[in-house]
Fold:
Amino acid sequence: MKKTNLIIGSILVLSLFQVLNASQVKTSFSAPYNKAEDNYGNITVYQDVDIKKSTHRIDNIWGKFSNPANDKTVYKDINTKGTFKLSIEQSFACRDGGLNSEGCSSQKPFLINEGILDNPDMKLDAQGGALPLGEYRIPFDSAANYDERNNDSFYALDIYRDGKFYKDPAITGEPADKANNFFSYMISFFKDYFSKDTHTYGSGNESPEQRDRYIANITFGAQKDYRLAKSGSIATNEVNTANSAKHVSLLDYNSQIVETTTGCNGLFFSFSPNSLTCKSRNFFGMSNFMPFINSTPNIKVKSDSVVEDTETTLLTLAGNLDDTNYLDSKTRIDPVTGKRTVVSEIFKPVTFMAGSMFRFFFGNSSRNLTEIVSANFDFKNQMPLTFIETDGSSVKQFRHFLLMGLESVYGTEVESCKVKETSGILGFGSSYETYTAGVPKSNNPDFKLSFLSGVFGSNPSCSDFSKLKNCKKYRPKFSISKKIKIDMDETDWLSWCKRNQGRQKKGLFGRIFDTFSSIGNFLQGHSEYGTVYDQQLDSFLSIANFTVKDYKEKVHKGLILHLKATNVENIGIGTVGTTTTYKLMKIK
Amino acid sequence: MRNGSAAIVPLFFAIVILFGFIMFMGGASENLQHISELEHIKNVEKRIVTAAMIMKINLINANQDLTVPLTESQMDAIVSQRISVMMNNSIK
Structure:
């Protein structure tokens, strides 16, 4: 009994001691309050910190010369309350990039027009199905196509930046302090999260000033001094004219598309010619898939370098946030066989595309693409992106999104086709005709089918080609054989060429789909007259002994961002991809 | 003595003023000491609330990487503990 009393007593004494000890300094935080969006799109919130300390001693100066024990002031308690204003910037690379917070903000250099979030086309997936509520697929469009009524795409903005916040110190000659190492930061960024084979990186000789600051603006957000305020003006009728007087314009540049002979030089970086990436790039047109890498001679990828830079920078940032090399995981090469192993998910057919993508590919006189596919990237951590919404002349509001993924879109356009007509049984007297997209041509040859009828058994008649336009069978003067006359325009010839070009001359998609046979049928049946028409045309021209001599097509590359709308309430301290800065507003 | 008694008056005054001055200076020193202590307290308060805020922000940021995230009150307890250690060790 005595023993238990002793134990209970000591526990009581101990716990009392603990309470006293713990109560000596007590820190508590209020719940965040007055959450709002500031004039520049950052989220601000207030929070109080309360600190209480029961006894607090201060040694005074005389203590240094006399008995310290006597010369001190003892305050009974400190009871202090600090109010902080916290600013949540939707940018996370600032500190890593060696920039101080002046170089960073929430604002990304992306512009959208009012009404885009109400556009039903933006709420559909690649197959035309509905996206979950609040999700959008917004394509990139170039500044040349900008119109304040375009509510179906986003545009790049040129926002000024001070040199020290994006230039390499070696170029500017400024002292190499931490704030200046942007490009060395980007090199490691790209190497870590993009490709180990990357061995050089540079902004290039022809790299315009605007390009460098655009990449910096995407990575870090606009510099604080040059941010756009609500109702600030944007010169949407100008391109690349940003200046230090907070003048903001649209952005466009294309000087980076430089023809290279090695084929392994990129625009943003170049690959070592001996690297695995470079050697294996012909596997299925890797060159066309890798951003910035120029193409093999018979396929030209027509691409805007603004869209390439946007894609690569966002991929790199997302890779950094997720700690994943997205390109690497999509294009892994088996070390034993040298072949790609995880490629089946790279290209996905796209059957629905907003009109803005056609506008981007072809300008305002939009034509139909023959095939569209996309390489999809889905991100684990959703990077916040703040877009600037405008009515065409000024900032209306800031739209907060989370970047769920991006789609690197490829669309082919037929360029020209050289057709060979073999006359005579041994192929003597062959003639050639070239058909070019957009150049009308309807002087069709007389198709001599009667000669071949003996070979094929029956004499083909117009009823066999019921779908073909204006089929006439006649026997010209001075000829013993009957001939057929049908109307074919250049688009008929080109679509026939595409189907009959032969494997070795297949374009980018031919090679992609040969690799992934499971979606091979996607290429078929795209004719405006239907598959029966295509079949009849194919058999007709085959009987008439026409073959494809030379087929050319162009590949266009675009970008679609997969975004999820978010609002001020969902963004707080510690939200992925944000940086919180603080300011002590008042104390006590 | 009578002549001399007149001469001592200014000297006496001088001594009184000197003493007064010394007293005044001593008091000023006390005041300065007091002000310095108040400033010190103000600085301490600023430093500890800022430190607490930074700790809280860092904890919130680091919280995402934990398999079992901390609750708000757990984070507050950690900050309180650290502030306590900081005040007992480095600020007196």
